[in-house]
Amino acid sequence: MSSQIDHLLSETRRFAPPAQFAADAVGTAELYERAAADREGFWADQARDLLHWHTPFTQVLDWTNPPFAEWFADGELNVAYNCLDRHVEAGNGERVALLWEGEPGEERRITYAELTDEVKRVANVLEGLGIGHGDRVAIYLPMIPEAVAAMLAVARIGAIHSVVFGGFSADSLRARIDDAGAKLVITADGGYRKGKVSPLKPAVDMALADRNGSGEQETVEHVLVVRRGGNDVEWNPERDLWWHEAVPAASADHEARPFPAENPLFILYTSGTTGKPKGILHTSGGYLAQAAFTNRVVHDVHPESDVYWCTADIGWITGHTYVTYGPLANGATQVLYEGTPDTPHPGRWWEVIEKYGVSIFYTAPTAIRSFMKIGREVPQRFDLSSLRLLGSVGEPINPEAWVWYRNIIGRESTPIVDTWWQTETGAIMISALPGITETKPGSAQVPIPGIAIDVVDDSGEHVGNGNGGLLVITEPWPSMLRGIWGDPERYKETYWDKFADKGYYFAGDGARLDEDGDVWLLGRVDDVMNVSGHRLSTAEIESALVAHESTAEAAVVGAADETTGQAVVAFVIIKQSFLKAHEPEGLAGTLRTWVGEQIGAIARPRDIYIVGELPKTRSGKIMRRLLRDVAEGREVGDTTTLADTAVMSVISKQVK
Ligand code: 6R9
Q1: 483 strand-pairing partners
Q2: Dist. CA 287–CA 22, nearest whole Å
Q3: Which of 142, 425, 561, 593 is deepest in the core (most CB within 10 A)?
Q4: Runs of H (alpha helix) within 167-251
């Protein structure tokens, strides 16, 4: 970490917003002044200006029972109405909402009127299946327009969606369906990934079946299936129905009923420091207000002229807030792309930007670094002159990648917004405003208007400029998580206990304030890894590894990786009994595949080392810090607290 900090400290490049950009920008300096003078009044203004309220609110924030916040609680709205119907009623029905590009190259242009129509039909189908207010619906879909429509239809009827990333395994899906008690699963036969159809429905069938003594899943009554991949699927006529049969047959009349602002909107599972993923709960009014506001001012969306593209999958929070809710609440036109960046050729994304004239582009540092590796020749083959703003999210962006992004993709002129936020925060919290802030490569810089953050030491004291510490959020914000599904205690413990006397939310990230007071994020300070911008917990992968018959013990660390930011590296002790009965050859490969099956391909360790022992303290805690040294090829640090100080030299030899 210290070499990383030194490196960041030496970064002195500065980029002022281009004059024309600043002149036309949505975000203005007055926003900061207004928010500083009256934070709650500021958010109330945003919520009123950006959203339609069936019943206007009179209360703004209720923080009488911290850490359980309520925003705009006596107001009523319908989230889907805000993202759809009102744009049609305002005369913008013919504006394109989604410019969809399938991986094999098909194209669909869907207007706001068409999307509204589709969502109304889906809402009728859902209600016909007995889904209503407060019911949970799991969504396990590829990046196709139906994914957005499904989320909005669930929101429209006041039900709660739980989107599960299509790359997660049947077991991960099952755990999420069980935890939420979902009544319905919306999936597809399969979707295109890397040039072939990757099946989804078979994973749903597996998830719902009785496997490994799990018993048959009991809450799911129906599975609604979009035909996309054309792959063969098994069919349970009592349970399964095709989208293409049910939806067109349903009525396109559906009234958007108002729901209270605090009506739950979705649960999204994310990795924490323990083995069990947490179901992060978000509600309606505050979430949508901050989603719409940040998308407007940070991404500088001008809905009548921009073509916006956020490359995140809807399975992640970025896809929720900056594909589905933010841009559609603002009435923007956006690209939705199904596949991977390098299929069928490494210039696929740049081709999409040229084809649709994308003007705002929001992606992750890991993607930028992998493009850097391929070389500038690839993007330079395409006309990227439509781009006027670039954004980054998911992990710290190193200054080299930032500058490459600006120079090669942004023609040395577009502003870059490096946006820090989390599944839990619901929307962007720290970022430059592109028409105002002079940007610094590698720094997320300043809290957005209306957000209060600090960097503090272990006892919660402000560290002062020039120092590092822990990132905290010091005041409640509209799109904050409202809890962990079914586990209020864990919510308090995880986020609020560390600085309970101050009432600060602890984000789990380390950060540093520079001499100007700007924030530089330094990565997680807990056992959460960040691989290609995806959060993974060491504990979750360890528990998958020890669930394999061969494994006695396992320790997992996130090791620095040039492309993915961090990579999963596992140290595994194999059971003696297993070694007696089996050849150890190929075991590392078997375990990699196993982890992929248990959690999903993103969790597969890059390296697995079979070792004889793990470094432990006298109290039995695994010292992951030392394993990280080995995994990153460094001199092993202080081993004096180990129970057996010889262990590390043995491990180092085994790894070489
Ligand atoms: C939106 C999202 C959250 C964690 C967060 C932090 C890291 C996200 C970042 C960033 C540095 C940025 N993170 N954006 N670190 N600079 N601009 O990614 O949510 O998947 O919940 O991850 O990602 O470590 O705590 P999520």
Answers
A1: 281
A2: 27
A3: 142
A4: 170-180, 201-208, 243-249
Most distant CA atoms of the chain, gap in Å: 74
Residues of the chain above pLDDT 90, percent: 83
The pairing of beta strand 136-140 with beta strand 160-163: parallel
Q: 452-511 pLDDT, tens per residue?
A: 999 999 999 999 999 999 999 999 999 999 999 999 999 999 999 999 999 999 999 999
How many whole angstroms separate alpha carbon 5 and alpha carbon 399? 12
Q: Annotate 167-202 with b (16+ C-beta within 10 A) or e (fewer).
A: bbbbbbbbbbbbbbebbbbbbbbbbbbeeebbbbbb
- Considering only CA atoms, which residue is closest to atom 15 of ligand 1? 395
pLDDT at 3 > cutoff 70: no
Whole-angstrom CA distances from 267 to 199, 385, 424 are 24, 38, 10
Tokens of 44: 């109330």
CA 284 – ligand 1 centroid, Å: 22
| End-to-end CA, the chain | 23
CA distance 74 to 366: 42
Helix, coil or strand: residue 299: coil
pTM over 0.80: yes
Torsion of the alpha carbons at 124, 127, 131 and 132, rounded to the nearest 10:
100
DSSP class of 479: T
User: What are the phi and psi torsion angles at 418 (to 5°)?
Assistant: -95, 110
Residue whose structure tokens are 């959690």: 599
Helix or strand or coil: residue 602?
helix
Q: How far is CA 82 from CA 330, 469, 527, in A?
A: 9, 40, 38
**Are 343 and 101 in contact, with CB atoms under 8 Å apart?**
no
548 is in an annotated binding site: yes
Q: What amino acid is encoded at 273 in this protein?
A: T
Structure tokens at 358: 């994308």
d(CA 329, CA 334): 12
Q: What is the pLDDT of residues 411-427, one digit of tens each?
A: 999 999 999 999 999 99
CA of 145 to the centre of ligand 1 (A): 26
β pairing state of 360-363 and 307-310: parallel
Q: Which numbered atom of ligand 1 lies nearest the CA of 535? A: 20
DSSP string across 60-88: -EEEEETTEEEESTT-EE-HHHHHTHHHI
Reading the block at residue 143, the tokens are 């990046």
- DSSP assignments along 349-394, one per residue: HHHHHHHHT--EEEE-HHHHHHHHHH-THHHHTS--TT--EEEEES
Backbone angles phi, psi at 643, to 5 degrees: -65, -40
Question: Cα 337–343–345 angle (5° rounding)?
Answer: 120
323 is in an annotated binding site: no
Task: Enumerate residues 6+ apart whose C-beta is below 8 A from 453.
Answer: 429, 430, 447, 471, 472, 473, 474, 519
* Distance from C-alpha of 569 to C-alpha of 126, rounded to nearest angstrom: 43
Is the CB of residue 261 less than 8 Å from the CB of residue 43?
A: no
